[in-house]
Structure prediction request, 776 residues.
Amino acid sequence: MREMNTEKRTKGLLLKGGRIVDPATGRDEVADLLIEAGRVKDVGKLSAAVDSDRCEMIDVTGLVVAPGLIDMHVHLREPGREDEETIESGSHAAVKGGLTAVVPMANTNPPTDDQTAVRFVRERGREVGLTRILPVAAVTKQQEGKELTEIAELVDAGAVAISDDGVPVRSAELMRRALEYAKMFGIPVISHAEDPDLSADGQMHEGLVSTSLGLHGIPAAAEESMVSRDLILARLTGSHVHIAHVSAKGSVELIRGAKAQGVRVTAETAPHYCTLTDESIAETFDTNLKVNPPLRTQEDVQAVIKGLVDGTLDVIASDHAPHSIAEKEVEFPAAPCGMIGMETMLGIVLTKLVHGGHLSLSQALARLSLGPASALGIEGGTLEPGSPAHLTIIDLGKEWVVDPSTFASKSRNCPFTGWRLTGLPMLTIVDGRVVYTSPDREARGQRAKARASAKNR
Amino acid sequence: MNARGKVQRLQRKDLLGLEYLSRDEIELILELGKSFKEISERPIKKVPTLRGKTVVNLFFEPSTRTAASFDLAAKRLSADTINVSSSSSSVIKGETLLDTARNIEAMKVDVLVIRHRAEGAPHFLASRLGASVINAGDGCHEHPTQGLLDMMTMLEHCGQLDGLRVLIVGDVAHSRVARSNIWGLKRMGARVTVCAPLTLVPYGLESMGVDLVTGLDQAIVDKDVIMVLRIQLERQRSGLFPSLREYARTFGVNRERLKRAKEGLLIMHPGPINRGIELDPDVADGPYSLILDQVTNGVAVRMAVLYLLSGGEGARDEH
Prediction:
């Protein structure tokens, strides 16, 4: 594995003629990009200057060259539910979605709450060798909300953040201590903001639709009150809190206010909170629309989009949550929460937010790369020379239809089935190595080769 | 009926809720229910209309009157029926709802009547099965045949539903009866008011087109019908109201309170009654109580629904 990388690195890779979009510097121009030794070496008009013997060349004319996308909120289910996803299948899904790093949450079975577990996830990710797997470790042992995990050792083992995601840290006192302790290591505490008493027995957003369907509702207040608590604790401790999966208008407003006051907070939302509402559940009772936090109203969707536009929300992450068909093919209240999203995230963001006129391309790419890199305090999110060569090459105009039967993920619980999207990753590059090439691109490459050899004859 | 251009058939496979029915469809069912009611009053209470059809009652929640009512309705139309209850079904052995239903359908049944605690369970089956599905109550969502039998009863005693003033009292948040009645009554032009403690009112209930009040004494004054909902003990235990005693004093319907009502205010209750809590015995058994009429009409309206979903047509002009 390591040897292969070294070999690739000495060779060098030239991406020729792409549109370089770097949200970190504002660069947006057609140029070549040279990768050497796993890092971006140079950006500019380079084709002539590069020694083609020492360098592989890929023509990316007409495509966008973006900093590698980072999905800072996924569930890979290994260990524990390998029938739903594994680190291997999840890695394939990730690179297909253009993701050069994914951040799996700790609610595996057993939870990722000790250094052995963190090392296992890291190691499996390295063995698979596609996307980078950067694990989150639990805040509390067994995610029981009682005792802090050994955070120093978890960070040593490679955890990039701590979170009990899936469940909230119920005790404000324990959350306070977690924030204080984590501050020593420069890692964020990721808050799954949900008041479990207010959300108890909840099946969907509490609103007009839950009223007509008779399904027990989860009020936006269940999220907002916990967001509020954690913002206050972040202010108290001066520590960095990251609010996961923001779905409610009130949460966006609270975070905006806290940022204005200088609280160290970053926040994320997911593609489904920008595109789907509780209305979609009416009549169909489609369990693929059951998710936590729940799909809310059009007003919330608009507020979430506004939060992305003004930077209140720094990150778009998929909250990819695989569930087996057996678990989802049941009556609505019996189904677990969650939807998959790694393979649709970029397409949804480009189609609904960029082509839809809400975000510029650079803003969207920032929320998918620079935003998560900054929130996690890791390298990435830029194409400046010297930065690690994690890149996503995108065909902005590629039209496709979401068909879960073609997914690399092991699960099929996708709410976007049948959606027509515009924009798809063509190449995914990690550490200067091409880890994914889209089938369209491969077919094109073969046709080009065939033409070339025909000419030679 | 033809002359007025009314619908003669239900253009649908399933009856899942009254939210989805048009005024014409509701009228068709109610009129047919009226003509089927007479069959139950004959010495030989049976017609051959659905001979050779099979109706399965699949009840995952305990039920006395609804299960018996569907069974009798099917039998009076000469359909073959079987009743499967959760205690006798393979749900106990861990089988999924869909597998249970598919196995029953594989025995070539025509209509599946389902009661289930999960909201949307009938919708879930209806979209996956070829057989007709009738919702006999799904969680807190809908109980369409109850709504229909209630409307049939009101129609019988009041002559019309248009403009009728109906008061629903009690735990609307957890009531499928309330939801079906609200959808159906609103569709038919009635004016519906809900009176309940605010902890038992779901978010934005007024958006369903009803008025919401909390003072029962004032609410009673101008109403034609009062529908009293059953209060469930576990709601008190989960902290939704302080005590049954206080509930009975504040929202219980008793003779004293009814002194303020219009002459002839009709009393309805979907049953089973908590006597002395939401409804006093002397009111439940009093002259204006329609509670047993509701039960009688339940059989008739379910006959109509079974008949129409099996492809039957509404009454012709000569009828």
Q: What stands out?
A: The mean pLDDT of chain B is 93. The radius of gyration of chain B is 19 Å. Chain B touches chain A through 28 residues (CB under 8 Å).
